[in-house]
């Protein structure tokens, strides 16, 4: 086996761990310097790690406050303020959208992962069902229509809303989280049997055609 191949394999193996450690290192230093500096100015003594521990306790406190009705209203109040201030709006809204996309709130908005023949026949994109079309949209279409969100790669917080007939939508077995990983990785991540079973089930591979 070539040295280059061995080195590449080792690098790809250790990279996720290194990134994880680096992120925690940044968070630790940030909290320790920010909150630890404030504590040091009060007690006039430096305690290594006190800022990090205090930061974790502060996060737990905020989580506890946000979990009750009064606290939730207070959080929503500040949320509306940050979304209206021109200086913070762009950064705050973008960060919130990215976080929501990978949390329970974002995943609950997406009901199923699907394949959709788009933007033309023979090409497929991964999308997420957000619901069934209603009101005027459904009344103006000849058949049942689904709302499909087709995210962009590698940033899934932006994308397109495609209204597709249910018969044109191919449901996948992968979870919403797995679908997100495929989008963010640009297709480098492929969960389970996606490459074999699901692709084999496509119309071209089964000999069936849509009307």
Describe this protein's structure.
- The protein is α+β, with helices and mostly antiparallel strands.
- It has 2 domains: 3-104, no CATH class; 107-206, no CATH class.
- It contains 9 helices and 5 strands; from the N terminus they run H-H-H-H-H-E-E-H-E-E-E-H-H-H.
- A 5-stranded antiparallel sheet has the order 4-3-2-1-5, with helices on one face.
- The longest helix is centred in the N-terminal third of the chain and has 41 residues, at 3-43.
- It is flat, with a radius of gyration of 23 Å.
Characteristic key phrases:
15% strand; five-stranded antiparallel β-sheet; alpha+beta; flat; 211 residues; disordered C terminus; 2 domains
Q: How large is the count of helical segments?
A: 9
Lateral strand order in the biggest sheet: 4-3-2-1-5
β-strand number: 5
**Low-pLDDT sequence parts:** 204-211
Number of individual domains: 2
Q: Report the biggest beta sheet as strand number plus sense, adding barrel if it closes.
A: 5 strands, antiparallel
Radius of gyration: 23 Å
Topology:
Layout: H1 3-43, H2 50-66, H3 69-84, H4 86-101, H5 104-109, E1 112-117, E2 124-132, H6 135-140, E3 145-151, E4 159-165, E5 169-171, H7 176-184, H8 194-200, H9 203-206
Antiparallel strand pairs: 1-2, 1-5, 2-3, 3-4
């Amino acid at each position: 086996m070539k040295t280059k191949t061995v080195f590449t394999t080792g690098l790809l193996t250790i990279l996720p761990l290194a990134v994880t450690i680096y992120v925690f290192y940044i968070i630790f230093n940030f909290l320790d310097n920010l909150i630890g500096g404030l504590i040091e100015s009060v007690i006039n003594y430096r305690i290594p790690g006190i800022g990090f521990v205090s930061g974790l306790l502060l996060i737990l406190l905020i989580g506890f406050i946000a979990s009750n009705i009064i606290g939730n209203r207070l959080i929503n109040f500040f949320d509306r303020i940050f979304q209206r201030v021109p200086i913070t709006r762009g950064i705050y809204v973008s960060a919130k959208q990215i976080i929501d996309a990978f949390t329970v709130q974002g995943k609950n908005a997406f009901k199923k992962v699907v394949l959709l023949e788009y933007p033309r026949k023979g090409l497929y994109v991964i999308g997420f069902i957000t619901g069934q079309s209603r009101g005027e949209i459904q009344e103006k279409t000849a058949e049942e229509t689904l709302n499909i969100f087709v995210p962009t790669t590698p940033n899934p917080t932006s994308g397109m809303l495609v209204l597709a007939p249910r018969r044109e939508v191919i449901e996948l077995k992968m979870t919403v989280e797995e679908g997100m990983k495929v989008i963010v990785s640009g297709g480098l991540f492929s969960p389970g049997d996606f490459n074999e079973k699901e692709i084999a089930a496509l119309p071209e591979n089964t000999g069936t055609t849509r009307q």
